[in-house]
Design brief:
This protein is of the alpha/beta class. The protein has 9 helices and 9 strands. The protein is globular and about 45 Å long.
Length: 234
């Protein structure tokens, strides 16, 4: 075992012990573990249910459709649908040959052992975070101020006569899209792939990614799934 991997596993077990402790009570929504969310448990469970429905809808979209081609042109459809299917069921996260349950943690300043993650949440631009190779998604308090609904048809990707993108960035700025983005990050790694680094967020850059990179960039999945909800035409 590599030294770096050994340290990662030690961290995983330490954090897992914290998550399962009485100081950080956990509840379940399907196969997902929700920890430290308190009165937000109901909201998070409802969000996970909506996400599951959204993913099933996205999987039924023809992989030859213009929406799929826009975000994953040239990509093997099986790669994309496999990742979306695993997220929908909350499949185990594989790390160094060991299965771990996907866990969503509502970060706060009162959580023992999570000072570093709480520090990340202090950045004005961070609403959620994750790290490839871990089973944890952290939701910062700012996350709950995002739009709960999926954007309407007016937020679909649009282009001006000169070819420039006019709208569409809002598709990736809802609670559902942000949560999906972070889950895709850890599930890409769980599938034995390496998430794109640095990740691409801006819509015009997302659309310009070549097939060798688009399926490794979490924002492509977030935009694709959001676009399917309102039958966006590209």
């Amino acid at each position: 075992m590599r030294a770096g991997v050994g340290l990662e596993i030690v961290f995983l077990f330490c954090l897992a012990a914290i998550v399962s402790s009485a100081m950080m009570p956990a509840v379940r929504s399907g196969n997902y573990v929700m920890s430290g969310c308190g009165e937000r448990n109901g909201e998070l469970a409802a969000l996970l249910s909506r996400l599951q429905q959204s993913l099933y809808t996205a999987r039924q979209i023809s992989t030859k459709s213009t929406v799929f081609e826009k975000f994953f042109h040239g990509v093997n459809p099986a790669t994309v649908t496999r990742i979306l299917s695993t997220i929908a069921t909350g499949g185990d996260i594989n790390f160094d040959g060991q299965p771990f349950e996907p866990t969503i943690i509502c970060a706060s300043s009162e959580m023992p052992g999570l000072a570093d993650q709480w520090g990340v949440c202090q950045s004005p631009s961070v609403v959620a975070s994750s790290r490839p190779g871990y089973r944890f998604v952290f939701l910062c308090p700012r996350f709950w101020g995002l739009l709960k609904r999926v954007p309407d048809a007016l937020d679909c990707v649009g282009t001006l006569p000169n070819g420039h993108i006019s709208v569409g960035q809002g598709l990736a700025r809802t609670q559902l899209s942000i949560l999906l983005h972070e889950l895709v990050t850890i599930y890409i790694a769980s599938a034995g792939l390496k998430p794109l680094h640095p990740q691409v967020w801006a819509l015009h850059d997302v659309l310009d990614l070549p097939p060798t990179k688009s399926y490794l960039n979490p924002a492509n999945y977030a935009f694709f799934v959001a676009s399917t909800q309102y039958h966006c035409r590209m």
